[in-house]
Amino acid sequence: MTSHLIIGNGVAGTTAAEQIQKHDPNAGITMITKESLPLYSRIRIPEFLSGKIPEQTLIIKDLSWHEQRGINLITDTIVSHVDYKNKTAVAEDGTLFSYDTLLLATGSNSFIPPIKGSDKKGVFSLRTAADARALAALDAEDKEVVLIGGGLLGLEAASALVSTGKRVTVVEFFDRLLPRQLDNEGAARLQSLLEDMGFTFRLGEVTQEISGKDRVDGVRLKSGETLKAHAVLFSAGVRSELSLVADSGMETDRGIVVNEQMETSLTGVYAAGDVAQFDDINFCIWPEAVEQGRVAGINMAGGKATFKNTPPSNVLKVAGIALASAGDIDVEGKMNSDIVATNTVYQKIVKDTDGNIIGCIMLGDTKPFNQILKQIKGE
Questions:
Q1: Is the pTM of this model over 0.85?
Q2: Hey, what domains does the chain have and what are their CATH numbers?
């Protein structure tokens, strides 16, 4: 019986496990995670933070789902070392795991910039359910929160905090929100909608220092302004979790470099999801993690599947506002675009010189998105 080991139980690792079981029902599948929960929705963490849903509602694939498929899920366990030559992994408690094939699906960690004072009490990130638990424990009297970085999950978290009575100021290095998903006009409209909800913004700003003796009491900006803060939440992007490949000889860059089969430079070792880098791109997006996990799982089980680079796309809600974007959003306005704009809706369809749709932004109304995305992909 072939033994497959998966480190990480995010959507990439769980999808891979499902595919291995489908293509090799007799395989031994062990999945190890430092998380306390089976696969859950990170997208819904802000709902949990706001108190709208209980923690258990986050779960997508429960323990019985794993048991029915013969997947041995081991939670609350950190793998401290992998011996790639002898095909073994060691957990912090000394437990040894052997494997024939290995998938590294260790995901990513919130990036905390090296800002003075970032180690003080009251500084948070929001990547996991455990992070949400810590943030939710803020004292009700601690009203002032500064969000450093205007990323997607950060804005969603800020919305959850606003709904619980917190006052949130967003400090963003770029001069507009969500620069990867929105052009200037779309970002300005989103900002206006968020301001109507109670958000305050400092755009094009840099955080110099987080002040306070032991606990946060303010955030000093490069402009000289100091913002009052009972808590600071970082949403400054993510970095691939590469601790298990140090000194392994495995090819890495921003992530673990993989080929079309999701195999690393070491035979029999695969990577998928936020930790993987394919064709010089470290996607860190849910749909790509699903597809990479699918491809990795099939190949680990002896099948043949390849991962294809497709135009990046996002479909989500920012503070309850529908947003979708894909392909070339033409930030500089050099392409031909069809634009529909109202007080609550901004839709932009970007076309090349031949009239082919190559990108789009949809804010406030995303109903046409799937059809447009097919055209972008040439389907």
A1: yes
A2: 3-109+238-300 (3.50.50.60), 123-234 (3.50.50.60), 313-377 (3.30.390.30)
